[in-house]
Amino acid sequence: MHIAIAGNIGSGKTTLTSLLAKHYKWEPHFEDADENPYLNDFYNDMQRWSFNLQVYFLNNRFSQVQEFRNNKKNVIQDRTIYEDAYIFAPNLHAMGLMTSRDFESYFSLFKLMESFIAPPDLLIYLRASIPVLVDQISNRGREYEESIRLDYLKRLNERYEAWISTYDQGKLLVIDVDNINFLENKEDLGNVISKIDAEVHGLF
Question: Residue 74: its pLDDT value, please?
Answer without folding.
Answer: 93
